[in-house]
Design brief:
alpha+beta; 18 helices; signal; SBP_5_dom; 520 residues; globular; four-stranded antiparallel beta sheet; 29% helix
């Protein structure tokens, strides 16, 4: 058995006991909620909500180490195909009923069968057994050294199955068509976490109240209000005027304008990044995007200049589509900038005079980076190697439809982790058959983009653990760099802006902003 067996005490993970605050804490941010149903939710605000109102079996500490939550101990077999969790017998839902193995089984089967955006987290689960009320045994389809990290993701929320079932929630194989509980979740919650849903007004605010029946250390805050505030300037104004306690999406330029001894600004590295992507199989391509052409495009990007132009010292360059700080994500060489070699490659490919290329992308500001301005810089860079970009900023919904349909020759977009684990990046970005970006790259129309080495490395990494797994993830990252389909550019820092009397603010790899640790 793996040495992954940990015993819990109530104080192992819990924040220090605080004097309870009666004043609501107000957070200003763009509320990007797609759902308050924990198994349909999939967004940044969803991570905050799910981890505050529901609980997973495990969670992460400040150093991204797994620690107990609903599970008091856990173990996995040597070949990473079976995991056993023992639930803490003290765990209770907000209605006072016990959290039992049947609730875990029901919740995880529902997550899988709803077929929502986060359902992929359960794709490798073959079966879930509950030999008694406090034991959950998960059997995998194939080895998965990532499953313990997945079980700490807020999307694996454990729901009170009795309460949710009575509200129309289903976990059966046909749940995607028979479950009708999403509307109920807009006004109710059924979790075991420190907070409960108090109210939600779309495009206005999300209000959480302290769970007075919480089974661990009670949160200090009696109420948390997340108030819809679309842009950084408005968030900064709310913070400085005292109408908000935390502003969550402040960009570097706005942060420089914020003054006052009662406002605290912290900058921390994030796991988010922005990238350019190419689609050799896009129907709008005017020339074949061969490996030589893709390499030329990569060589034509002046990445240090792009970093200076977008976020400067408030971020860092990233070479592979694996975040710095994730297993296997460090140690990649900086990607070269070489105009002469780029032109040589284009001439060799028969494009000495260059060509025109469509570049459609979401017209939005993300992590402090305006994608339109970013792509103007990319346009200027590629003009030096005689590639003329036709920039087309479009709404995100339209972008999604196009990139998943006929494809887009070149685009720019962003990625934030769904859990603390590297397999998600290979799942998403590798040129393996059926992966999201192999489809967007047009693998069905141009199978040459597929890279079988990545599939082998992925399988091997999931069967390994620790340093050996990290080494294999790094090798997969090297292969994804060689594909030159995904061209990562910058990883913006995260700016934490809050009133100086607010304590416990931190960025979490699993939960975004852990509300239970806050006080003021």
């Amino acid at each position: 058995m793996l040495a992954a067996v940990l015993l819990a005490t109530s104080a192992f993970w819990a924040p220090a006991t605080f004097a309870q605050d009666s004043k609501p804490l107000v957070i200003a941010r763009n509320i990007d909620l797609n759902s308050l149903d924990p198994h349909r939710a999939f967004c940044d605000t969803c991570q905050i909500y799910n981890s505050s109102v529901y609980e997973s079996l495990l969670t992460l500490d400040k150093d991204n180490k797994l620690i107990p939550l609903l599970a008091s101990k856990w173990e996995g077999n040597a070949d990473q195909t079976s995991f056993t969790f023992t639930l803490d017998p003290a765990a209770k839902f907000s209605d006072g009923s016990p959290v039992e193995a049947k609730d875990v089984k029901w919740s995880w089967e529902r997550l899988k069968n709803l077929k929502g955006s986060a359902s992929f987290l359960m794709d490798n689960v073959a079966s879930i057994e509950t030999p008694d009320a406090h034991t959950v045994v998960v059997k995998m389809v194939a080895p998965s050294s990532e499953f313990l990290n997945i079980s700490a993701a807020p999307y694996t929320a454990v729901v009170n199955s009795k309460v949710a079932s009575e509200a129309g929630a289903k976990a059966d194989a046909d749940a995607s068509t028979t479950d009708n509980a999403e509307a109920w979740f807009l006004a109710h919650s059924a979790g075991s976490a420190p907070f409960v849903l108090k109210s939600y007004e779309p495009n206005s605010e999300l209000r959480l109240a302290r769970n007075d029946k919480y089974w661990r250390t009670a949160p200090a805050l009696s109420e948390v209000v997340i108030r819809q505030t679309k842009d950084a300037v408005a968030q900064a104004q709310m913070l400085q005027s005292g109408t908000a306690d935390i502003a969550m999406q402040i960009d570097p330029d706005t942060a420089k304008t914020m003054t006052g001894s009662d406002v605290k600004i912290e900058t921390v590295p994030s796991y988010n990044f922005i990238y350019v992507a190419l689609s050799p199989g896009a129907k709008a391509n005017k020339v074949p995007l061969t490996p030589e052409v893709r390499e030329a495009i990569s060589l034509g990007l002046d990445r240090p200049s792009i970093l200076d132009f977008t976020i400067g010292s408030e971020g860092q360059l990233i070479s592979a589509p694996i975040p710095l700080g994730f297993p296997g994500g460090s140690g990649f060489e900086a990607q070269p900038y070489d105009v002469a070699k780029a032109k040589e490659l284009l001439a060799k490919a028969g494009h000495a005079d260059g060509f025109e290329m469509e570049a459609a992308f979401p017209g939005m500001n993300v992590y402090g980076v305006d994608l339109s301005l970013l792509m103007q810089k990319v346009q200027q860079d590629l003009a030096k190697i005689n590639i003329k970009l036709d920039l087309q900023p479009i709404p995100f919904a339209n972008w999604r439809e196009r990139v998943n349909g006929d494809g887009i020759p070149m685009t720019a977009v962003f990625y934030a982790p769904d859990y603390y684990g590297t397999s998600q990046y290979v799942d998403y970005f590798a040129m393996t058959k059926g992966s999201p970006w192999s489809r967007r790259a047009g693998a069905e129309r141009d199978p040459s983009v597929l890279n079988p080495k990545e599939a082998d490395l992925y399988k091997a990494a999931l069967a390994a653990s620790g340093d050996e797994a990290a080494k294999l993830w790094h090798q997969a990252g090297e292969e994804m760099i060689k594909d030159r389909i995904i061209l990562p550019l910058v990883s913006p820092n995260l700016i934490l802006a809050y009133k100086s009397d607010v304590k416990g603010v931190r960025y979490s790899a699993c939960c975004n902003l852990p509300l239970a640790e806050l006080s003021h």
